[in-house]
What does this fold into?
Amino acid sequence: GADLDAGGGPTTRHPEGHGVSVADLRGPTTPAPGGRVRRYALTARQTTVQVGGRTVEAWGYNGQVPGPPITAEQGDLIEVTLRNDDIARGVTLHWHGYDVPAGEDGAPGVTQDAVRPGGEFVYRFRADQVGTYWYHTHQASDVGVKMGLYGTLVVGPPAKGLDLTVPVHTFGGTTVTGVAGTPQAAPGTPVRLRLVNTDSVPHRFTLAGAAYRLVAVDGGDLSGPGELREVELRLPAGGRYDLAFTMPDAAVALHLDGGEGLRLGGGEPQPAPKGWPELDITRYGTPATTPFGPDSRFDRSFTLVLDRAIALVDGVPRYAFTVNGRALPNVPTQLVREGDLVELTVANRGFDTHPWHLHGHRVLVLERDGRRVSGSPLWLDTFDVRPGEVWRVAFRANNPGEWMNHCHNLAHAAQGMSLHLRYD
Ligand code: C2O
Ligand code: CU
It folds into this structure.
């Protein structure tokens, strides 16, 4: 079948009725005043990883899994030269959660051609958004990301004390934190943990041994986050949570899916706590002013019903993951104009969780299941729509081009749960 998630084709399509190709909507070539140029070279190639004493086939950038961490300060220019040694299906770099110009977005068949073995593509964008993000291939991404073609992107000054990025990934059934050994921090040291879920399913975290705050979600700081204890955090596929706490005298344990995750400091490992309630992030933190809200007048409204159904795939009816009863490429493109305030309602009628992800835009969550957000404003690039749930979100159409929006369970996206959003 076709690489539905990627568009798959070797040709770049052009938005109709536009003199400009999406591929021409490129980023600036210089940093902001006072900024620096951060140059990286990433070469995709086959490699192996060690998981739980086993050697597992993998694909990595520069032979590393995760790929090299990309870091920058606000205002820097990030310039990444992507090459492909031997990944026959081709690769790209997509900057997950980072609102880069469309031509830098790494969506093959939409914004560029996939980089084939021997090929090269140079990405350039300004580090405007501070926070925790990640990058991954977008070509045949259900296979490529699973195999290891991903890494982290962190913008901003490192937090004082211990600042640890924790990209969680599953290889051959074993979930690993991407952190080697037991990091040490003296009592009283501030600690920031940047959790990144690079898998296609949600992960559950509990932090035992310290009170902490959830200070950022999907890179965006929360307003007035209070202290948390004895709660479980559920991190959607593709999502990021930044946790902050002060190192206590004894060890702190971050448990992952009820098992061993990461331990900080010495001492006895603590058993994974059971029965802690899940934190509802739509009720956490303090309300703050936002540029628009649930009662705004919207220029466009779209409704997406997500399900699993028989739909045409390559002209043949078969089981697919569907948007309004259709599978990509038969899902109608959403058309917006620059400046529009866009309302998006996403309902899940199926039995699987669908982490809905937008490229190029962050959404403000308005309502989950008819209930307004009562805590901190939440600006997300991926929101987890569980079976039976309805989310109402909104965004400003302020990043012209053509964008892929899709379920970040990448197997679902590959089986049709994907669409394009295009500026008229
Ligand atoms: Cu993180 Cu279109 O993906
Ligand atoms: Cu899905």
User: Anything to note?
Assistant: Residues 32 and 75 are 5 Å apart (CA to CA). The chain has three domains: 4-155, 162-279, 300-423. Helices lie at 141-147, 410-414.
